[in-house]
UniProtKB/TrEMBL annotation:
NCBIfam families linked: T6A_YjeE
Residue stretches making up the Aminoglycoside phosphotransferase domain: 190-443
Plastid found in the keyword field: no
Composition bias type Pro residues, residue spans: 535-548
UniProt name for this protein: tRNA threonylcarbamoyladenosine biosynthesis protein TsaE
Keywords tagged on the record: ATP-binding, Cytoplasm, Magnesium, Metal-binding, Nucleotide-binding, tRNA processing
Length: 579
């Protein structure tokens, strides 16, 4: 069941509390799971209670959860006072201050250096007075009820600062997990991408599920026309679009996750686990043709349907799927100007920026004039699962479609045929495009193959343009330089798309202003006193074939990037996963 009622906002009061009863060791383990999911580097957790209350037991369970290793040896730091653990996701320091003489001894232990940036668990914190306390902390007070069973513990948790809101959210998550029947399940963190959402696998005795934790995202400052970036680019700001699209896709026979329950206002969903088998195979990972063919068949079938622009979410709540309009496409393309060009050492004159927008406006017009379909927007290998026990189109599991829009059919086809993180062989890309066009022509003899080819080229170029900006931003703003290794691949995709005849004017602009990844630009005085690049010739690029006639076999070849973190302008703090 999805709860569409308001559960209340996260409290702004800097203190929150939660009373918890732990009847046995299993309950202690579940609390440790909840705490491990909540904690972040730099957080402090203090544990106090009488001797034998279970402070070390809880700390040990928590460290094992953070490590993802139930067998990890966690000795008590009673004699060493401090014990450090360098875990895959973060560093943990476990301290027992019972033998501490006074707070001055913390310096001798190297307290500040050891705990900087770590999750710090402290037993007997009162021995240090207030010397270790910090604004963002969780205090855990453990009591042994008089006359109760030996295993019974009563806890009162107090969250301060950031951990006040985190504790409030943790209570909501635990309530939802219990309500959907996954209370005993083990929570296992799933690695995500550059997104504000987080995911966990709930491993149960009979079936698994996935917890989607997507708190409502702030709009960010106005960037154009009084509107924030997320509104202009039509990025989902809560989980309602995900629920609507999941149900809409499932009703049409596609394998989007079933939704077992949720709290719409809190941004929490428990959804079907589609497993871990994707559409890639081998080392290094490469596309598996059979699975890619099934994935393009899904798009052809979806795009042949009459698709509404409004879908139900819950009783009395509808979701209107926004149009992938000109302003959204332009502000995404401008990520190239805002992030990739500065990354490449290029300062752009105002008139060149205006020319960029004008050229893109002209180039996008034919694609925007086509009949719109559901553009899932993140249709690439990380979000496509393989479900061999299902039949036909249902073998392809679909994820990450909350930013879906009504727009050109070619966008998702380009997302599939060209991936920012892996190489799709050009022969496979051509085969996929031919397969898609053939299926569309069989469903509708009037399907315009040449118009689709032109749309594929322009949407591919727009997507590659956007991703160059996104990956440069991830390096500069988010300190994720690993994305830079993909830039040459995306650049090649862009060159192939720009070779399409209809994009000749746009290709000329790129040649004059945009350096290839790794190129050393030469500078000269530019308009309005700004520096502009004297460009070097771009590297050889494989042109995007143009169909000579509306034939399914003559589909175009281009390379557009896969999904990446959500675009935003430099002034926009918003981070989204959609591209």
């Amino acid at each position: 069941m999805i709860d569409s009622r308001s559960t209340g906002s996260v409290p702004t009061n800097p203190v929150a509390h939660w009373d918890v009863t732990l009847p046995d060791e299993g309950a202690t383990g579940r609390l440790a799971m909840d705490l491990a999911a909540m904690l972040r580097p730099g957080d402090l957790v203090t544990l106090d209670g009488d001797l034998g209350a279970g402070k070390t037991t809880l700390a040990r369970a928590l460290i094992r959860e953070l490590a993802g290793d139930p067998e990890l040896e966690v000795p008590s730091p009673t004699f060493t006072l401090m014990q450090g653990y360098d875990l895959p996701r973060l560093r943990v320091v476990h301290a027992d201050l019972y033998r501490l003489g006074d707070a001055s001894e913390l310096d001798e232990l190297g307290w500040s250096e050891q705990t900087d940036g770590a999750v710090t668990l402290v037993e007997w914190p009162e021995r240090a007075g207030g010397a270790i306390l910090q604004p963002d902390r969780l205090e855990v007070h453990i009591a042994l009820p008089v006359g109760g069973p030996e295993t019974l513990r009563r806890l009162r948790l107090f969250g301060f600062g950031r951990l006040a809101g985190a504790l409030f959210r943790m209570k909501s998550i635990r309530a939802l997990i219990d309500q959907t029947g996954f209370g005993p399940a083990h929570r296992r963190h799933l690695q995500g991408d550059a997104s504000t959402r987080s995911y966990e696998r709930l491993v149960g005795a009979r079936r698994n599920a996935v917890l989607m934790n997507a708190p409502r995202r702030p709009d960010g400052p106005p960037v154009r026309g009084g509107r924030p970036y997320s509104q202009i680019a039509h990025l989902a700001e809560d989980v309602k679009p995900f629920v609507a699209m999941a149900r809409g896709l499932r009703e049409r026979g596609f394998s989007a996750p079933a939704i077992y329950g949720g709290d719409l206002e809190a941004g929490l969903l428990i959804i079907e686990d589609l497993g871990e088998e994707g559409v890639l195979g081998g080392t290094p990972p490469a596309p598996l043709p059979e699975r890619y063919e099934a994935a393009v068949d899904v798009l052809a079938a979806l795009h042949a349907m009459e698709l509404p622009d409004t879908l139900p979410v819950a009783q009395g709540i509808d979701h209107h799927i926004p149009a992938y309009d000109l302003q959204a496409l332009l502000i995404e393309a401008e990520l190239l100007l805002d992030w990739y060009l500065p990354h490449s050492g290029v300062s752009l004159a105002a008139d060149a920026r205006q020319s960029f927008r004008q050229l893109w406006t002209v180039a996008l017009a034919p694609a925007l004039a086509q009949k719109p379909v559901w553009v899932l927007r993140d249709y690439h290998s990380p979000n496509l699962m393989w479900l061999p026990d299902r039949d036909g189109l249902a073998r392809v599991g679909l994820l990450d479609f909350q930013d879906a829009v009504m727009g050109p059919a070619a966008y998702d086809v380009a997302s599939l045929g060209q991936d920012a993180r892996i190489d799709v062989p050009e022969a496979l890309e051509l085969a996929l495009l031919g397969r898609y066009a053939k299926a569309r022509r069989e469903a509708d003899p009037a399907f315009d193959v040449r118009g689709f080819a032109a749309s594929y080229a322009v949407m591919g170029a727009q997507r590659a343009t956007k991703i160059l900006g996104i990956f440069a931003r991830l390096n500069h703003r988010d300190r994720k330089p690993a994305y830079l290794r993909h830039l040459p691949r995306i650049w090649n995709y862009l060159q192939r798309c720009l070779a399409f005849t209809e994009l000749e004017a746009l290709a000329s602009w790129y040649k004059d202003h945009v350096p290839a990844p790794g190129a050393r630009p030469r500078f000269e005085a530019g308009a309005a006193g700004l520096a502009t690049r004297t460009p070097a010739p771009p590297p050889p690029a494989s042109p995007l074939p143009e169909p000579a006639a509306p034939s399914a076999a003559a589909a175009p070849s281009a390379e557009v990037t896969a999904d990446a973190p959500a675009p935003s302008t430099p002034e926009t703090p918003n981070d989204s996963s959609s591209t």
